[in-house]
Amino acid sequence: MACGLWAGKLDAYVDGELPPADERALREHLRGCASCAADSVELLQAKRAVQAAASKRFLPDAGFRARIQKTLAAPRSPRRNFNWLPALAAIAAALLAVVALSFAYNRNRVRERQLMSELADLHVATLASANPVDVVSSDRHTVKPWFQGKIPFTFNLPELAGTPFVLVGARISYLNQAPGAELIFRVRQHQISVFIFQDRAVGTVLAKERAGTELSFNVQSWSRNGLRYFVIGDASADDLEKLSSLLKSST
Amino acid sequence: MPLLDRLYNFAHWLAGNREEAEDLVEETFAKALKGFSSFQPGTNFRAWIYRILRNTFLTSRTGLKSAATVPLDSEADNDTLPATQSTPETILLERLDHQLAREALDQLPVHYREILLLCEVEEMSYQEISATLAIPAGTVMSRLSRARRALRDTAQKLQRS
Q1: Does some domain include residue B76?
Q2: Which parts of A55-83 fold into alpha helices (H)?
Q3: Å between B59 CA and nearest CA of chain A
């Protein structure tokens, strides 16, 4: 598709509103088109600038806050049936709870996106690195002990004999300043990274089990025994699923 | 009480001063409580309450004035906008500091300002914005695009002067 047709979609792209197929196609286009790439970066920067400049720009003062709380809690007319009071308070509380939840959900969605794109970055960085692994071994009994004393937890690796997966090696990785393990597997020509971090390094933004795509990479993630696993790569969702269940069965 | 803070911030950006922002928020809560039966469960609550606030603003003195002085652009035509060219001038938004961004936002016509706030600050989806502003989803996209361009142009003018 020519630039002219994409230009009208850049806004929807930076807002995360393009249908998945369009988003993939546009990403592909951005890789080869400096002008559209620059435009989308500019849009994103402007978006952030407005966000930073306009969020929490004006705050209600304490007196006004108290007044509103009174409006919400008090019955609108004192002559009304007394039962109004708890009813109104309940409605007000429900309103606030619903809104608080939806805001929290929205914030979580943004954080989740940030987290997933950071993992995608880590995976891409490994692919691009001249020394993708710190310990080169296809033997799980070599790789696992290598992590001793380097990360504050331990994990089990599955037996891969009879499966299409090959362990290439491993390295230390960091997420939110916490160390974790990155294991690199190969299936046919595809490289897959498996990240293992402590739950608390990841926070509570992710559902217990999650599957999806990030930058067109397939991602699977789950949490078990206080550890958060991420499986990410350009292999098929099917392959990722298989590797994930192997890992799950060994934990 | 995150809702109050957010509604207040939005109201202040629309109305432009503390007094009117307070009145707007107060009236919004009063209307919301009174009309809670008109809220359909399962629909978007946030869009509903922002819509009340925004409609309250539009019928206020300031709101009527700002709507009257702003010619509505023709949004029916879904013309494809020409690609922006990144020149050193347009990349200035990269360094768009708070002060400049605020001034530019302040100077925008209210229908551009509100859609930018809903999208960037409230992080609403196009669907939510469409429900809040009662405009079709396609218009959300074209208006946002125009609003962003207007913001950029305004910031450039401000910086030059």
Answers
A1: no
A2: 62-73
A3: 21
Q: Do B90 and A42 touch (CB under 8 A)?
A: yes
Does the pLDDT at position B11 exceed 90?
A: yes
Q: d(Cα A31, Cα A246) in Å, to the nearest integer?
A: 35
CB contact under 8 A, A56 and B9: yes
Closest CA to B153 of B75, B78, B96: B96
Contact flag B126-A98 (C-beta cutoff 8 Å): no
B81 CA: distance to closest CA in chain A (Å): 6
Alpha-helical (H) ranges within chain A are 3-7, 10-14, 20-32, 34-54, 62-73, 84-128, 140-146, 199-202, 237-250
Cα(A177)–Cα(A187) distance, rounded to whole angstroms? Answer: 30
Give yes or no: residues A159 and A228 share one domain. yes
Q: Which among B156, B150, B144 is positioned nearest to B95, based on CA atoms?
A: B156
Range of the domain at A208: 131-251
Q: How would you class B19 by CB atoms within 10 Å of its CB: exposed for 0-12, middle for 13-18, buried for 19 or more?
A: exposed
> Residue B125 domain-assigned?
yes
Question: And the tokens for A72?
Answer: 């919400």
Do A6 and A83 sit in the same domain of this protein?
yes
Mean pLDDT of the region A226-237: 89
Provide the ipTM. 0.81
CB-defined contacts A:B, below 8 A: 147
Mean pLDDT, chain A, integer: 82
Q: Which of B1, B3, B101 sits opposite A49 (nearest CB)?
A: B101
Position with higher pLDDT, B13 vs A32: B13
Q: How far is CA A227 from CA A26, A199, A249, B118, in A?
A: 35, 5, 14, 37
- The number of domains in chain B is 1
Answer yes or no: do A43 and B148 touch at CB < 8 A: yes
The region of weakest confidence among A172-186, B53-67, B109-123 is B53-67
pLDDT tens profile B64-122: 777 665 545 555 444 444 445 445 444 455 456 778 889 999 999 999 999 999 999 99
Range of the domain at B15: 2-68+86-160
The answer to whether the CB atoms of A17 and B141 lie below 8 A apart is yes
B143 vs chain A: nearest CA distance in angstroms?
Answer: 10
- Name the burial class of residue A186, with classes exposed (0-12), middle (13-18) and buried (19+) by CB atoms within 10 angstroms of its CB: middle
